[in-house]
Write a structure and sequence with these properties.
Elements (H helix, E strand, L loop, with lengths): L1 E2 L6 H9 L5 E2 L3 H23 E2 L4 E2 L4 H5 L4 H21 L8 H15 L6 H11 L9 H16 L3 H24 L4 E2 L1
Parallel strand pairs: 1-2, 4-5
Antiparallel strand pairs: 3-4
Helix pairs in contact: 2-4, 2-6, 4-8, 7-8
């Protein structure tokens, strides 16, 4: 988690760091937003892809550890490459220093998630389960995913990052396919 050094949250920061929580201090709001996007891709987006099992007509309540250490190597590789793409877009945008590497940014956050939140079920998954049971999954993307994907697509296009744009569009397609499946089959889903 990154917070701004000079905000109103400095007292909270002091209290939490005294409890041994690992925080980075960011004075760059763009960097904070790209770090959040990298985490979101690893958790919420991966969770949607992993939760909807079209082969078994089931919905699995996957936790954050299952997202980060997916048994599906193809999905794990896709998510990792997608996170690196978000980092590269952020770097082009000026959110990260030229000397920073994806691993240096992601690994401490990954360790923190696995240490403190590994069994957490993401809000996207909880919301998706509720919407599916109520037959109210919206057409297209969930707002939470759309609010991350749309700006990333725009920036990737603006910076002529074709490979990164392709991966983001693939994510959008994968999530849309999962949502379409739930929308069409919600009454027949085996809920985990």
């Amino acid at each position: 988690i990154a917070i701004h050094k000079h905000d109103l949250f400095s007292q909270i920061f002091e209290m939490l760091t005294s409890k041994k929580f690992n925080f980075s201090i960011s004075t760059n709001p763009a960097k904070l937003e790209f770090e959040k996007a990298i985490i979101n891709i690893a958790t919420n987006s991966a969770a949607i892809i992993l939760a909807v099992d079209e082969n078994n007509n089931s919905f699995n309540m996957v936790n954050l550890e299952q997202c980060i250490h997916s048994q599906d190597q193809e999905i794990q590789k896709f998510i990792y490459n997608l996170q690196k793409s978000v980092f590269e877009i952020g770097k082009k945008h000026g959110a990260f220093a030229k000397s920073e590497t994806f691993e240096r940014v992601w690994l401490p956050r990954k360790e923190q998630i696995l240490k403190h939140d590994n069994l957490h079920i993401s809000s996207s998954i909880q919301c998706l389960k509720f919407m599916s049971k109520a037959n109210s999954i919206p057409e297209g993307m969930l707002n939470s995913e759309k609010s991350i994907i749309e700006p990333l697509k725009k920036l990737a296009s603006q910076f002529n990052l074709e490979e990164e744009l392709k991966l983001i569009q693939e994510l959008e397609d994968k999530i849309s396919k999962k949502l379409d499946f739930l929308r069409m089959n919600s009454s027949n889903i085996n809920w985990d």
